[in-house]
Amino acid sequence: MLLYRKFSPLYNLGFFYLIVSFILRIALFFHPITQSSFGFFDSIKIFCLGLISDIFVFILAGGFLWLYLLFLSNSKYLKSYGYIIFGILLSLFAYVLFFNTILNEYGGAAPEIGRSFIGLKTVLFGLLLFLPKYRGKIRFWLFSLTIFIYVVCILQNAISEYLFWNEFGVRYNFIAVDYLVYTNEVIGNIMQSYPVIPIFSGLFLVAGTFTYFIVKRSKNYLVEIPTFLEKIKLSGIYIGLFLISLVVIPFLSSKENSQNIFTNELQSNGLYKFYLAFSNSELDYFKFYKTLPNNDAFAILKNQIPTISDASTLRNIKSEVAENKKNVVLITIESYSAEFLKLYGNEQNITPFLDSLALKSLLFSNLYAVGNRTVRGLESVTMCIPPTAGESVVKRKDNKNKFTTGSVFAKKGYNVKYIYGGDAYFDNMEDFFSGNNYGIVDKKTFTPEEITFSNVWGVCDEDLYKKAIKTMNLEAKEGKPFFNHIMSVSNHRPFTYPTGKIDIPADAKSREGGVKYTDYAMREFFKMAQKQSWFKNTVFVILADHCASSSGKTELPMDKYRIPAMIYSPGFVEPRIFNKLMSQIDIMPTALGLLNFNYQSKFYGQDVLKTDYKPRALIATYQNLGLVKDNVLTIISPKQQVKQFGLTVIPNPKMGADFQIMFEEKLLEKRRTDLVNETISYYQSASQMLKEKKYQK
Length: 697
Description:
Elements: H1 2-6, H2 8-29, H3 40-61, H4 63-70, H5 75-78, H6 81-98, H7 102-106, H8 110-130, H9 135-168, H10 174-181, H11 183-193, H12 196-218, H13 220-223, H14 228-254, H15 261-267, H16 270-280, H17 285-288, H18 294-304, E1 315-317, E2 327-333, H19 352-358, E3 362-364, E4 367-368, H20 374-383, H21 405-411, E5 415-420, H22 429-435, E6 439-441, E7 454-455, E8 458-459, H23 461-477, E9 482-487, H24 511-529, E10 538-544, E11 565-568, E12 576-578, E13 582-583, H25 587-594, E14 599-601, E15 617-620, E16 625-629, E17 632-637, E18 641-649, E19 663-667, H26 673-691
Parallel strand pairs: 2-9, 2-10, 3-12, 4-13, 5-6, 5-9
Antiparallel strand pairs: 1-14, 3-11, 7-8, 10-11, 15-16, 16-17, 17-18, 18-19
Helix pairs in contact: 2-3, 2-9, 2-12, 3-14, 3-15, 6-8, 9-12, 10-16, 18-26, 23-24
């Protein structure tokens, strides 16, 4: 009885969660989309193993409630150290309120969230400390609020799982993770698709009712708060159950092995499926997207990429002239939209150096990024592959020993490095690049003397470029050519940079300031580079990783994918404008072509300077996969959906014909089947190559 009383908040809330999960499983079991019949043993697996899984998942999810209960006590308010704790909270609140903290460095809503949380915690602790007469009531209402939040989350999750099943016929997968990334778009879609106000009104009413009964059955915990010794004993029991859950849940998940997919989905727990989707970062193309027979997909692809084999993209790239093993420096610039440059109509003069460098370079005026995250940009210039559904390969578990630009250079005897101003642990970059035999130079390798300015993302671009110069000087002494991929960081919120460098104040924290400082730092880099012995024997490839923003009126707004890109090598690469449509995945195969490299290629990217190149671009989000060709944007999406938009330029008289970036995207009623099939061929074949490990080096 004592155990029941001490665990009553967890016990009662857990019982409620199991009831809701059972009702949800029944609803999904009989849902019209569940087009399957279940035998006796399938039904046993669904409900029995599903129940056990739900129990252990709740034990893990209840961890936050247990921590809350663990810190409930009266002693700290009755003894002098309660005033010390309150003083510490006040000091901390004053610090985040009046001083510059890491929250300010990050920018956005982070400072307000941090101040609000610490301020609320300080106020509540003060009320409990200085108003002993009302301590019981205050604690009761805080306890009730905590239970209410849990109840709302449980009910809202059940509703979300039902709606997700109603749309996709499965538990949570990477699409659900994607919904967290595109919050604005998803909320807008929900607001237009469902009666949100009645649903949430009903949700809060039901949640309030159940909270009342759960609190009523659990308030004995507040009446007899466990002693310190009792909390130690109870924590031992809970931690034991927690650790067992970490083993049991994956074990039960491994038993979701029925030939009937609905059996596996119904047996599973939605929250754990969400965790798996988040950690695995993949979305099964063959389960959710329109497909073609495998042979047909590669046959269509073969028309787009000449000389590939029948079941892969493997082909021989041959040059008629001798190879030129110049050094290659690839610079990917953080969040740099084409619209920032004067060439594309910008009148703010925030990219004076890049504007001038572009006219001295082979400028690709009609190039599109494949995605809207740095890891997508890194994937595209490293693996030169279409952006497959889900997260970038950079963040997947199976991300090593791939066929990459680095592997091509390494076979030619180059030193290969990835140089980054932040901690390469972020976004799994270190795991990806080191796993593909790149040497890593990141913030951890900087000495204190090499850092003049840094923020939450890493050192400023000036410090990064100085480190890159030092690295390349050392490489040049080894007598081997080098390929270095440099990733900038300064053009990222909070847009902070050293003072006195540009005419936009460093404390303005403006996008324009970040763009202009990034441009300034690159100018300083080239000033230093021109003085080095290796400069005249080096090819510089410069492009953005993605645009500054991605939201628009359509699923894939064209102007949000247009990025600047150029190849600069005085005396070697002739300055000119290449205006054919191309993709971010083409930039490195084109650079390799300029070097006349002979190599076996698996790249989907192509040398756009070859006469057999067929203009097209690939653009995507985590789940909307697009192909731009013949003034048509074709988008394939989950649930085997296909859309096509006709593209019409919206002319801007301030810029030349090669630099128009705005398009009207009009939904086509009559589809071009050839372009639909071509889109499928790119993404299906790439997904298959990765799945079957055919994209290894």
